[in-house]
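Q: For a teaching handout, I want to show students what a protein-ligand complex looks like in token form. Below are the inputs, and the small molecule is 2-acetamido-2-deoxy-beta-D-glucopyranose. Please produce the holo structure.
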Amino acid sequence: MGPCTSPSLLLLLCLSVILISATHATDCSSLKLAGGKKQYSNCTELPTLNSTLHFTYNATNSSLSIAFSAPPSKPNGWIAWAVNPTGTGMAGAQTLLAFKANGSMVVKTYNISSYSSIVEGKLSFDVWDLEAESDKDGKMVIYGSVKVAASTEKLNQVWQVGPGMADGGPMKHDFGKANLAAVGELQLVEKLSPAAPSPSPSTQASEKGPNSGYWVSGINAGFWISGLISLLILM
Ligand SMILES: *[C@@H]1O[C@H](CO)[C@@H](O)[C@H](O)[C@H]1NC(C)=O
Ligand SMILES: *[C@@H]1O[C@H](CO)[C@@H](O)[C@H](O)[C@H]1NC(C)=O
Ligand SMILES: *[C@@H]1O[C@H](CO)[C@@H](O)[C@H](O)[C@H]1NC(C)=O
Ligand SMILES: *[C@@H]1O[C@H](CO)[C@@H](O)[C@H](O)[C@H]1NC(C)=O
Ligand SMILES: *[C@@H]1O[C@H](CO)[C@@H](O)[C@H](O)[C@H]1NC(C)=O
Ligand SMILES: *[C@@H]1O[C@H](CO)[C@@H](O)[C@H](O)[C@H]1NC(C)=O
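A: Here is the structure, written as tokens, with 2-acetamido-2-deoxy-beta-D-glucopyranose included.
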């Protein structure tokens, strides 16, 4: 009798599949993109303005592909995501900004060299594949790719939302706490754990901390065991 002809084994197999996919789900599942037409290897919930960033960084050709999602502050407002190669705030931000014009979403690039100089035009690095969309809940998404300097491990990013466009340019955003806090680092390459000589294999297991892979596989084992117990109860 093969494993798949035995009902209890089949149930066990199904249960294992469910358990495995559950434990492998990443944070990204709750950060579903509005359109969801592109796949990214990483995602992060930005700390303010209800925004998220999905991204894929290819270190080989130093290209960063992103999807920035946020609700604009007013239904016909704008959303923006920027890399600041020279500072940490808005001054210097090389910005991708999306808004709805005549019913369709457009993305424009702005060189924001200072608070009083927001100039539509080329950025200080290459950008391509710019696109934007909005969903029925009013969330907007900016898609795009940017070239970063070789060997970049992290970037200063800035994001923002605003109420609308006027005279072809973005209207001022609010200066609330959440708006002013919309800056941060984007880690492109996972940080190595604090510099320390790598432990020898014999001591490795005991030195593994709570964030180690061992602990994670411990959770997996826990799920497996509790799954087996509930299965036994069911039978
Ligand atoms: C973020 O979302 C929450 C709940 O959906 C809402 O109450 C809040 O006003 C939103 N904040 C912004 C800045 O849109
Ligand atoms: C990264 O870019 C290089 C050069 O274009 C390409 O060969 C490689 O397949 C890319 N890696 C991924 C994961 O897409
Ligand atoms: C780098 O590689 C990725 C994946 O292969 C590709 O999408 C991207 O266009 C490449 N970037 C450049 C600057 O060629
Ligand atoms: C919207 O359409 C009007 C009329 O066709 C045109 O004058 C205007 O430039 C368009 N706006 C944008 C941002 O494309
Ligand atoms: C952005 O604006 C600043 C100030 O006007 C200028 O020095 C810089 O060259 C501009 N960057 C690009 C890519 O045009
Ligand atoms: C991005 O995701 C990949 C694959 O899941 C992972 O190896 C990498 O460490 C992540 N990068 C960051 C910066 O978290």
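A: Two things your students might notice: The helical segments are 7-24, 177-180, 201-207, 213-234. The radius of gyration is 23 Å.
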